[in-house]
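Obj: model holo form, ligand = NAP.
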Amino acid sequence: MKTLVCRLAVAVLSLAAVVAPASAAKVRDPASPTILLTGSNRGVGLALATEYAAQGWNVIATCRTPKKATELKALAAENPKVIIEQLDVTDVRQIEKLAAKYKGVPVDVLFNNAGWLGTPIGKQQLGSFDQALFNEVMNTNVYGPLKLSEAFVANVEASSQKKIIGMTSGLGSLTLMGRMSRFYYYQMSKAAMNMGMRALRNDLMGRGITVALLAPGMVETDMLEDSGYSGQALKPAESAASLYKLVAELTPQDKGVPVNVDGKPIPW
Ligand SMILES: NC(=O)c1ccc[n+]([C@@H]2O[C@H](COP(=O)([O-])OP(=O)(O)OC[C@H]3O[C@@H](n4cnc5c(N)ncnc54)[C@H](OP(=O)(O)O)[C@@H]3O)[C@@H](O)[C@H]2O)c1
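Output (holo structure tokens):
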């Protein structure tokens, strides 16, 4: 009889494990605000993860390949409020899985930082257009942020600060582009992301959510190196510290125009 009861208990527990949602994720300190970041393993994203961790936030630091994210893992090892999660922003199933895992967890700031210049650059120049590269750049810089924002709207709405950020670039500006045509897909992707985030802002402002567009400035990262730019640039930590302040100062009255790291608006 005792054995039968034990077997039944094991069966019930196993069934519960199957039926229970995969969502068991918790942030370490529910009393502190929480940021969810994409592309946290290097460049501006790693600097943002470091800055927010230093400011005492819970950081859900996502990246494509956690196994290889050495510096991010070192940050998490020093700071228990940094949780590393795997996320390729072009993979809708991964986005949905992450959203299911964090269901019910308030996210004060959803920072769509991950971005891709699209290399080799030659394949985004007149005479060598390449559809596969175009699609990849657009998926990474436009659809990914939009889909992730949709998937986490309820988390942002449930938070105190309710902010969604799209990481834009002066290269997405018609006014500033001048005679630049070096990065067709990247330039187009940032212009499209601006419009997507602006439309999202219209849809979400009634729910108290602020959707903003921020640019990090010229920053010494792999992307800047890939672009061939060799002028003056900010250190990632400098850019991240200024972005932190800009995000903190955002209010629902924000006009929704793209803003550079120095606080100046970027013309459309
Ligand atoms: N650096 C600048 O001067 C500059 C200027 C204007 C705007 N921005 C914008 O700032 C953001 C950060 O740029 P950065 O300079 O730090 O670039 P970066 O050093 O090249 O880093 C890009 C980050 O995005 C991640 N990423 C790329 N594709 C991804 C995907 N499909 N899913 C998830 N993560 C992905 C990368 O992950 P992996 O390591 O896995 O590739 C990496 O973590 C981008 O949105 C960029 O467009 C940068």
